Amino acid sequence: MKKVFILLALAVAVAFSTAASAREVTFTAQLADYRGDGAYLAIYLTDSKGAYQGTLWIAGQDSEYYKHLRGWARGSGMDRAEYDGLTGASITSGRTLKMTLNLDDSLIDSGHQVRVDTAVEDMRDNRADVVTPLTTEGAGKAVSGRGYVKSFSYHF
Amino acid sequence: MWRKLHLFPGLVAAPLLIVLAITGVILSVSPALERWGAVVPADGEISVAQFAESVVQQYPGAEQIKRTPSGAVIVYYTRDGNPGADLVNPETGESMGPYEPSVFFRWVKDLHRSFLLGDGGRMLAGVLAALMVLMCISGAVMLARRAGGWLSLLSGFKGSGDSRVHSELARFAMIGLLLSALTGTYMSALRFGLLPEPANSEPSFPMEVAGGEPAPVGSLQALKNTDFNNLQELVFPFPGDPRDVYSLSTRQGAGFIDQSTGQFLEYKRTSTNNQIVDWIMRLHTAEGLWWLGLLLGLAALTVPVLSITGVRVWWSRRVSGRVRDNIDAADADAVILVGSENNATRGFAKDLHEQLSRSGRYVHSADMNELAEDYPKASLLFVLTSTYGHGDAPASANEFMEKLQQFQRTEELTFAVLGFGDRQFPRLFCQFAKDVDEALASHGLERLEDATFIDRKSADQFSQWGHRIAEVAGLDLRLSHNPKPPSLFELELVDRADFGLKLEAPTSILRFRPAAGKAGFPRMFGKKGGQLPDFEAGDLVGILPPGDDRPRYYSLASSREDGLLEICVRRLPGGLCSGFLHDLQAGDHIQGFIQANPEFRPAPGSQPVILIGAGAGIGPLAGFIRENDDRHPMYLYWGGRDPDSDFLYKPELGNYLQDQRLTGLSTAFSRTTEGAYVQDKIREDAPNVRQLIEMGAQVLVCGGSSMAADVREAINTILKPLKMDVEKLRQDGRYLEDVY
Predict the structure, then answer these.
(1) What is the tens place of the pLDDT at every residue in A108-153?
(2) Cα four-point dihedral sign A141, A144, A145, A148
(3) For the sheet containing B698-703, what is the strand order?
(4) Which one of A59, A110, B440, B724 counts the least CB within 10 Å of its CB?
(5) Are B722 and B687 in contact (CB under 8 A)?
(6) Which runs of E-coded beta strand occur in B671-732?
(7) CB–CB of B83 and A124 under 8 A?
(8) Chain A, 21-80: which have a CB under 8 Å from a chain B CB?
(9) Shortest Cα–Cα distance, A75 to chain B (Å)
């Protein structure tokens, strides 16, 4: 697991790095008991207007379903280079996804938002299931999603 | 080969295949249920724009509209920050209630496609689907062979018990099962990358949008041009995002529509390859094809029964004397060939096989018809054979003499023939065994031991023969086969019809039912106490008269399905068993057992059948006619003595003629002024008989041996112009005799 994180950290650092200083951020998404198959999640950054900036994590391996992560799909164009190395297993109903990566300091407190899109087979797609600003103040505060995400938080 | 391909996957996979089948059956009703609850407007009645407009009025927070292949329409929406989903009437846009996908069906679907085990389980399900394809194909080939051709598959099977149930069910379910298995295999192969996926034909997201004021959804041209019945999915733009678009997918393609202009920004037709894949998947899931779903479900419903009967057939075949450790013909140093009509000889052959193996020989056993071109390593050749009818080859040996012409003898190969027969019929006792013995000698092979003949399956004579063979061949043989005593069941006489009394040739039709509670151990899935064993008209019942342990055999005129066991018996002067039977009163009990006689049956298929008999020989023939439910052409020629006294089955035959089970009836009576015998009637009818045989008719003869000889002569005369004869018909399995 740890190896994956290091790899991630590298990838994200490369994607966003301009300055040298980076911070380790842990994202936690607890899913509701929505009684369905494993959920696909896209966790990504947007600017304050909601325009796509970069991918943080995709939960779910089968890229043919990625189009159902609608906001992310539209922003990223589902370009493989956008999510290469940033994917993992889909998340079972009621379970929690926890993942850590290094984010460039400049992304925090600069009007960026973290968004989560979710989708489940034969159930509805949720664009912007979670929308929360990425700020020092917001760290450690759980927000609830409007779809399959019961609560979402990040810690520095 | 085919049998192995059928058997191994079946034995290994049966329990899991049953799980796949039962879950499949449950899932198969889902499309029908969905269709039943759905409102489907006529084609061209509603456009997607119209419908979306009415949805937006009812659901201002609508996000996504989905139309399932069955026609159910789901609207996903957000109201006061809470997500929801409703089933919606497409004609009004009004809610038909909340949409709650069934948890049960989802669980069953998971069980069906992955045994609830994720990707590993999916792979297993894929492998099982492939095994199922294999079993369908191998099973179909075996069925076709058994029926005598692919076309004959349509007309059903004879036979009884598990084997019959298995074949009949498979005949109906085969196509459905093959379709499900093939499409399932394909889907699995696609998923695991064993087959190339068709190229992605989805449109890419548009980079630029017009950016104008969003127009009402009902006014969007691209949606107006799309018929509602073609809709698969419509996703609304994210509220307040002017750069977002409508995403539309239909059966024909998918595209993105500008919020303000209502024009497609991007559109791509579904490629043919993708459409094909789509169809293959629909043939499996039956989504939107509810009738197909029900048919496939019906087919899948047979799988548990097929599994159980299949395993049972295998088991009973295994138990009944299949030779184990059979060495290949090319490697064997001892060869046993069996000529058998009804398997009685096989028990002896099996004992010989085991004893030879035990004394260190590499033994190959086969039917005489399977005579190889040579046995390069063999020094011992044993031929164990019975004789059929009048000195003829039994079923498993009828091609032997012909094949022997091609046989390459080797120097060291020596042979011994062991014949099986009954000295009560001395004239042609073991005639075929004698013929084989001579043929082998004149083919240049050396005798190990003179031909020996076993009377009435005597275990004692068999073991003596073993001693002599052991001596001359320097082997350690202790043959001790004692034919298994047949399992007896008790019968109670229900009623009797007596004929021929004034002719002093009393003949009676006797009907028995099982005496209650006397059927041995109830078997796992079958018989309970007081039921008849499996038999069909044409099989034999062995009856033990009191004070004698040698059974007498009578041809059965009924099947187990009739619920009664019926025989037709003529009282012979001084006959121990026929006298015993004739003295029975209703309610009396006797002991009997069934000896299968599957060769004496009308062949499946619609070819005409000519039945010929005299006297009590009408019994099985009447049984065949009674079972002719498919109304295949059947003609009966029968000879009696006096129509007033011994016209057996007279009323029944009249009924059969009327309901067309029987096509034609010709009777001959010998004690009338006409004084005709059955063969005379056949000669009179020569053009007809000839034409029927030319058309492929099969001839079945039952009665005394002199009658049978006269009939053969008559038929031979009739067939002369066709350059055919009885012998040739017999080789084709088209001339069968049950003679006593």
Answers:
(1) 888 999 999 999 988 888 888 999 999 998 888 999 998 899 999 9
(2) positive
(3) B664-669, B634-640, B609-614, B698-703, B735-739
(4) A110
(5) no
(6) 698-703
(7) yes
(8) 35-37, 50, 67, 70-71, 73-74, 77
(9) 9
3-class SS string, B515-571 = CCCCCCCCCCCCCCCCCCCCCCCCCEEEECCCCCCCCEEEEECCCHHHCCEEEEEEC
Q: Are B91 and B83 within 8 A, CB to CB?
A: no
Contact yes or no for A128 and B238 at CB 8 A: yes
Question: Six-digit token pair at B590?
Answer: 């006797």
Task: Indicate which of A63, A124, A130, A146 best probes the interface with B, i.e. most B CBs within 10 Å of its own CB.
Answer: A124
Q: Minimal Cα–Cα distance from A21 to chain B, Å? A: 33
**From the CA of B90, how many Å to the nearest CA of chain A?**
19
Residues 6+ apart with CB under 8 A from B156: B168, B171, B604, B630
**Residue B187 scores a pLDDT above 60:** yes
Q: Could you give phi then psi for residue B649, rounded to 5 degrees?
A: 60, 25
- How is A77-144 classified by DSSP, letter by letter? TT-HHHHTT-EE--B-TT-EEEEEEEEEGGGTTSS-EEEEEEE-TTS-EEEEEEEEE--TTTTT--B-
Residue A3: exposure state from Cβ atoms within 10 A (0-12, 13-18, ≥19): exposed
Largest CA distance in chain A: 44
d(CA B74, CA B38): 11
Whether B505 has a pLDDT exceeding 50, the answer reads yes
Which among B251, B445, B442, B257 has a CA at the least distance from the CA of B335? B445
**Chain A residues with CB inside 8 Å of B76's CB?**
124-125
